[in-house]
Design goal:
Rossmann fold; about 45% helix; 8 helices; single chain
């Protein structure tokens, strides 16, 4: 059951961004357990594919954007990344993530807005964003900011629940959203409204091809864009050109 007085975020509501952040703060304590049960462990394979797409970018400072409970920060740590920034708008999600880090992990947690990153210069050799950008109101702003803080040649790997195009993927996506996600997530968290919102956010999000078009409009080069298995998640790998406009050849 939902917590007393809890309200799910409503599309078009000017307070939606605050409502979404509050919702993630509420479900943070059970989020890792819910994810494990909902994905039956497949999310680990998705993240492995994302890490493979990064290539040598992990040898430098990395940004985990919309880091949540830091699954990818942990993966970057295990890959030997020397410096990791976990960035998310939910303080409670980051606090849960901190408890999962091994002692001495070089991970800095920062609470902030993906649409306005705090670094003034290109800071990172690569970035990851897993299943969080659909909760950001303006993806064009977020991608522009991500492009700005990446070093030339840097890669951004996005794992996300885009609106599927293939018929079989749309059927799977619909059943997962309407039945599995709100039922299982609501049962584990005690907050069925929160997982109802997450289901709606997946159903209403843009197709992967539209997201890729926006990314290329802000300057990225598309390296990979494909659905993963099962066809509820997708991987997009973007690269900031080594010679950007105005840069020395």
């Amino acid at each position: 059951m939902s917590s007393p007085g809890a309200q799910g975020p409503v599309a078009g509501d000017p307070n939606r961004e605050n409502d979404v952040r509050d919702m993630f703060d509420r479900i943070a304590p059970t989020y890792v357990k819910a994810n494990a049960m909902l994905s039956m462990g497949v999310d680990k394979l998705w993240r492995k594919r994302g890490m493979e797409a990064l290539g040598d970018c992990v040898k430098g400072p990395m940004l985990d954007l919309c880091a949540g409970t830091m699954d990818l920060s942990l993966a970057l740590h295990d890959a030997g990344c020397p410096e990791i920034v976990a960035y998310d708008f939910s303080a409670n999600m980051l606090e849960v993530g901190k408890t999962r880090l091994p002692a001495g992990a070089n991970v800095t947690a920062i609470v902030g807005d993906a649409q306005s990153l705090p670094w003034q210069e290109p800071r990172f050799t690569g970035a990851v964003a897993a299943f969080g950008l659909r909760n950001v109101p303006d993806n064009r702003k977020a991608l522009s900011e991500l492009y700005r803080v990446l070093q030339p040649g840097g890669r951004a790997v996005i794992l996300e629940f885009f609106q599927p195009i293939r018929v079989d993927a749309r059927v799977f996506h619909s059943v997962f959203n309407k039945v599995v996600l709100p039922t299982v997530g609501g049962w584990i968290s005690g907050d069925s409204q929160a997982y109802g919102y997450l289901a709606d956010s997946m159903q209403a999000y843009m197709p992967r091809t539209e997201f890729q078009d926006i990314a290329q409009e802000v300057g990225f080069t598309l390296r990979i864009g494909r659905e993963l298995l099962p066809p509820v998640a997708s991987l997009v790998c973007l690269e900031k050109p080594k010679h950007t406009e105005g840069a020395a050849p």
